[in-house]
Give the backbone structure.
Amino acid sequence: MRNLGFWLGLLVGVSAAAGAQTTAANLHNRYAQPNREEMQARPGISVTVQYGLDQQACEIRVHPTTTSLLIKEPEAPMLPEIVTEIIDEIAPLDERGKPGIKGIENGGCNVLRIDEYESVTITRSTHECLPLQPARENPAILTFKKPECIEIQKARLQP
């Protein structure tokens, strides 16, 4: 029985030491600035940011928070009002530039909206089957139009 205590103590000590090495600060110091990171925007809603070489946001995805990188979880719909709040925090209307083309595509119950602005494109998708559900927004994507972001956007479009 004493042997079990020794091994449990050793396991706890090793786990604690390994945990100290994997803090955000330690990882940033070891591997430099992240090129992508995820943050909690609201309870149950995250934003994942893809940075350009200048560490400025190139793409931001507003999406339901997931609990694991390993398990593909179904994405629960979000409240459109909350997604709008987050989008407005990230890209306030007065910072988007001149409005450009607006597009809407219907596919069954799904509606895809693309709003082009001088400095950002905002893509949103909602589930519009009747009766309308309060939470009906799918992940939204903000794509910033900056020279530093062109390579990222080209890579995303390649097969």
Remarks:
- The mean pLDDT is 86.
- Strands lie at 36-42, 45-51, 57-64, 99-107, 110-117, 120-127, 140-144.
- Residues 34-157 form a domain with the Protein Transport Mog1p; Chain A fold (CATH 3.40.1000).
